[in-house]
């Protein structure tokens, strides 16, 4: 049954895996809509798209972790109903997840053979397992020591073990979900050469990523997903990075740019030469400098994961900066605690609202107190005035049109858009001179999006300095007076909101600096 | 509100389940569960003296329980209440027999020493938690052994009263906690416990500080974003919890034993932690659960004379309660997909 030796006359034998018309819904949300994906044998097929475009869902459907609502899966040309991962494994598929599932106290070989141990006389044959692991690791350049304990190894080596696990289980098609997200550049290069080795062996690789350079470097074919749909499948050599960005980022401008008066006043926020590291201690911000003036909306555009999150965290005191300065109202905020930055004049709508933005199990009232529990009218004498808090909450529910039963309603019960409005209601009523909004409308329906945008424009008219970070370019093109584009932790350039051109921004999002735009376009 | 009712109902069912399992154990030793439970009730509430005895047993459990509640509300487990109680009791005793102060003031100084001892003792795990992010569950459990053995050492080698007993000299009467009735050793400690429970409940419900602590416990990343210094809060919450744990010991020595004895208060600290867990971290609820555990303890005295059951059956029932309450909590948490990050839920 070696698939490579299959006669070429058989139809569709050219494809290792075919997904035909896959639709997957979660409630009202459609994660994949009629997606067709044909993966050529012995090739490296990249799937790219922004966060939430449906890449991981599609792969989970293929691997049997999710059941599609519609559509068909074929492996080696034959229809397969993948009811669970064991079916997928038997069909010759293997998946390396973003988060590894290894037992730290066991050795490399024990992990590789976990659940399918080689036995001799009823006991585990450690020597045979180690031998087999060594053989595979040498054959595919996945250097590991089979006898070492996994708990002592680096993430890069852990990933090799995950790949070995997949190979030992007989996979001919290997799916990797964002494999380079946890790797250093050197480790990534080694991974790529391993993947090329696979294809020379007749195996097929499916590779999920949103790092375009890697996709350009390693893949043969690219499929772009956007909002759950496959919008293009092309040979990689026929695409440029800028074209990929254009395909990934939604071009449907669904918003009209509101009329605005030139209200920009003096500098409220000044960032100079800011550097910071991400959780893996790699540089996430590199020499970032910009200003935000009173009555001005500055937008930060970029493919997710290019330093935007870290920028928001540094500016709100949640992450230390490694160099550089940021001053708010003339006060240096880089060394301040979150409370200190708030006192200096920050209001902050966080990007991850369920973790940072609210306590889902608490009431709307209790959520609207956060950050001002030590101020009137919430504090009266030494105590919290819950009655005043409920009154304030009722006013905000009205003003921000939060659909809830009342101030005592539990936040978790509300829809995403209404939870976002709870966060906005709290932060927009702090009378802060600087407003940092990370993903203003993520996961929010169109109606609520309009309401949130109107509210942001009202804050601008009041003279608040506003920094909006969004992965939705159309949103920035509607709201921002100036758009800064981030790529790989740097600001690639700045464009005026009135004359912004999507193609121009798209090039910068792909890492092509502003100066060379004309030449490249 | 319905959420809270559901939580209370869950705990009641868990206790009922444990009592049912306990009944099976009682049947296994050829005794009637009904007789055992009625004897327990009679032993706990049969006459005013027995009621007073129950309240006397409940007092250290209640104060330890409040100590545990404080930590739970901040999202932490103070499993070291037992050790804090021992050190607090010892410190109060040393002040009680070592200093000569006017009546009243002497008692207050003794209680202050107990509070200080508990706070200083918990400061070690609290510091390690803030500084090195160590797990306070492990470090507070371990601190118990050190505390208990340390007080034994001091008692035997430094302050041993002449004679056979491993105990300190008696505390001067000027440091005694006044008794409430003449027929029982029940004393002002109970009042201290009740007032403390009410004050703690009020603090969490009605003050900005209490709000910040509760949010640190239930949604730490949200609290951090909102400007709460969660590390510092966590440190001071553990200190407060340890201080109250020390107070529990001080009340016990100044109110009941009037001396410090080696192993003087077995398990009160742990019972307090269980009472707090059973009450879902509510100080008011802990008044009820502490009373329940106190009744089990004092009722068990009658068990051995009146039934074939040993008083150890109480320990079995308590253990079953712990099991079924933890199972209940785990079951509830499994249904709460977003709750993965939190450690305890209120």
From TrEMBL, chain A:
Residues 17-252, 269-513 form the ABC transporter domain. It is found in: Cell membrane. Its main location: membrane. Signal peptide: none annotated. It is a peripheral membrane protein. Pfam families: ABC_tran (PF00005). Coiled coil: none annotated. One of its GO terms (molecular function) is ATP hydrolysis activity. Keywords: ATP-binding, Cell membrane, Membrane, Nucleotide-binding, Repeat, Sugar transport, Translocase, Transport. Transmembrane segments: none annotated. InterPro entries: AAA+_ATPase, ABC_carbohydrate_import_ATPase, ABC_transporter-like_ATP-bd, ABC_transporter-like_CS, P-loop_NTPase. GO terms for cellular component: plasma membrane. PROSITE patterns: ABC_TRANSPORTER_1, ABC_TRANSPORTER_2. SMART domains: AAA (SM00382). Belongs to the ABC transporter superfamily. This is ABC transporter ATP-binding protein. It comes from Pseudaminobacter soli (ex Zhang et al. 2022). The lineage of its organism: Bacteria, Pseudomonadati, Pseudomonadota, Alphaproteobacteria, Hyphomicrobiales.
TrEMBL record, chain B:
Signal peptide: none annotated. Its main location: membrane. InterPro entries: ABC_transp_permease (IPR001851). GO terms for molecular function: transmembrane transporter activity. The chain crosses the membrane at residues 7-29, 49-72, 79-99, 105-128, 140-159, 186-204, 268-293. Pfam families: BPD_transp_2. It is a multi-pass membrane protein. Keywords: Cell membrane, Membrane, Transmembrane, Transmembrane helix. It is found in: Cell membrane. One of its GO terms (cellular component) is plasma membrane. This is ABC transporter permease. It comes from Pseudaminobacter soli (ex Zhang et al. 2022).
